[in-house]
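Technical appendix A lists one of the benchmark inputs used to test multi-chain prediction within the project. The record comprises two sequence entries:
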Amino acid sequence: MAEASVITDEMRAAIGKESKPATLEVDKTAVRMFARAVGYTDLIYYDEEYAKSKGYRSLLAPMGFLGHPIFRPDASFRPTYVAPFETPFKRVLNGGTDIEYYEPICAGDVLTSTTKIADIVERKGAMGTMLFIINETTCKNQEGRVVARFRGTLIHY
Amino acid sequence: MSEQVYFEDVQEGQEIPTLRQNCDSQRLVMWAAGSGDFYQIHYDKDFAQGNKLPDRIVHGALKHALLGRMLHEWVSDQGRVKRVACQYRGMDMVNEDVTCHGRVTKKYQQDGENIVELEVWTEDPKGQKTTPGTGVVSLPSRGQ
């Protein structure tokens, strides 16, 4: 007998709706901290003059770094995307990351991102029913050009 | 950086140099600060064990970034990493080595660019593929 889907009409209705834009700053210090954490030794992530000698405006942002949202201590402001519905599950796992770059992102850039739910998929696994929510974030730079697209999968179980 | 690799030198099926990175607690704390992900299962052992984990686990996004670093170091100055996608299928534990691998699956020219697609993955110390994925890079041509 088929079980009822955990995907509600409310969830289906949320697919494709764009979030409000968020601002992501790409700072030199943040680029260096990120590159250091990943273990990079290439100076294009650390030395601005060197990066310029390789044709970049400033330090190159390493793969995976799309700037940081502007932190505010007031709890009412949430720069990160939150799905506009509840799921029946308590736990969440990061299921995967897919980042595509169309143009280099460099220190000094200010990105504007919008996020939407691209898809919601239900699967039965070893841990029971799991809900895969795929978020898609598009980043434009200060010149209005799309520079990167991020797709993240969150597994609710 | 390694010696420049050119599009003409790449063959489908070819494996690229691996990248091994030990992920000790200092590395995970650096990643937390660099990425802004402060979830405690990655650096607080008591918290991780309270969440039914054997110990702290390596951030998935750090493994994604390490796959990106492997590709960046392979394509060198004149190449570009265009896309990295991966799935977090298995957990990697604190203090263990994460070894990144890549194998060329396809090469072609498109819109004036020399594109190489790869299968990429990470392995834990037991040789299990914990993070399978794909990568896309562009490379310079010897003729250009």
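Residues 28-38 of chain A form the longest helix (11 residues). Chain A touches chain B through 29 residues (CB under 8 Å). Comparable benchmark entries are summarised in Table A2.
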